[in-house]
């Protein structure tokens, strides 16, 4: 049996979980999330916990068991605490600024990059070179941060580009002197 899937998901106070035939809805202080359940997976609520079960031991059912439990855990964490990712912009003249619902990146190209902030995502500019993406849906927060990072991924020689705050860039040695 799945080691992750068999663990019950605790539901903190202030969070309500509604189960229907093929959908789960989680409501908390930060918002509401809903998701369709994959086939071969069942849910039930027991004294402040959500328990995920599977109806057979087939390959698909085993795969969906742990995945469903992790997705439900992320939904509950998202509506109660939220998720955030911090990006650092490294490089001379590289910066970010905000105008209404857009982020404007200056990343060494001949033009600025305009990025529309997706619905349900908050972007907070802590300094011109530090940006925090936050929201209740872990998947959308990660996707938004990855899209922004893809504008100018960090390069291995000087480390210039957009990187996650906790990311370590493996540096390469530059050109060796000619003999």
Write a structural description.
This protein has 179 residues and is an alpha+beta fold. It folds into two domains: 72 residues, Outer Surface Protein A, domain 3, CATH 3.90.930.12; 82 residues, Ribosomal protein L6 (Outer Surface Protein A, domain 3), CATH 3.90.930. Helix content is 19%, strand content 39%. The chain is built from two helices and 13 strands. The strands form four sheets. Strands 11-12-7-13 form a four-stranded antiparallel β-sheet. Strand 8 and strand 9 form a beta hairpin. The longest helix has 22 residues.
List the helices and strands and how they pair.
Layout: E1 9-10, E2 16-19, E3 23-28, E4 31-36, E5 41-46, E6 49-54, H1 59-80, E7 83-90, E8 95-99, E9 102-106, E10 113-116, E11 121-127, E12 130-135, H2 138-149, E13 161-164
Antiparallel strand pairs: 1-6, 2-3, 3-4, 5-6, 7-12, 7-13, 8-9, 9-10, 11-12
Give the mean pLDDT: 93
Uncertain stretches of 5 or more adjacent residues:
none
State which percent range the strand residues make up: 35-45%
CATH superfamily of the largest domain: Ribosomal protein L6
- Protein structure class: alpha+beta
CATH topology of the largest domain: Outer Surface Protein A, domain 3
CATH architecture of the largest domain, please? Alpha-Beta Complex
Largest sheet: 4 strands, antiparallel
Name of the CATH first level of the largest domain: Alpha Beta
| Whole-number total of structural domains | 2
What string gives the helices and strands in order?
EEEEEEHEEEEEEHE
Which outline best applies?
elongated
Radius of gyration: 21 Å
């Amino acid at each position: 049996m799945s080691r992750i899937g068999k663990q019950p998901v605790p539901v903190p106070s202030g969070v309500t979980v509604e189960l229907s035939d093929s959908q789960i809805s989680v409501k908390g202080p930060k918002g509401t999330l809903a998701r369709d359940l994959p086939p071969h997976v069942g849910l039930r609520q027991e004294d402040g916990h959500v328990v995920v079960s599977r109806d057979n031991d087939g390959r698909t059912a085993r795969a969906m068991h742990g995945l469903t439990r992790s997705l439900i855990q992320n939904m509950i964490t998202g509506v109660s605490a939220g998720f955030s990712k911090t990006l650092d912009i490294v490089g001379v003249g590289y910066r970010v600024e905000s105008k209404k619902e857009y982020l404007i990146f200056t990343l060494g190209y001949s033009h600025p990059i305009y990025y529309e902030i997706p619905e349900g995502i908050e972007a907070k500019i802590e300094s011109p070179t530090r940006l925090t993406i936050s929201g209740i849906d872990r998947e959308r927060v990660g996707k938004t941060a990855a899209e922004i990072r893809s504008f100018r991924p960090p390069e291995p020689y000087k480390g210039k580009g957009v990187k996650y705050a906790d990311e370590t860039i493996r540096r390469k040695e530059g050109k060796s002197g000619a003999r």
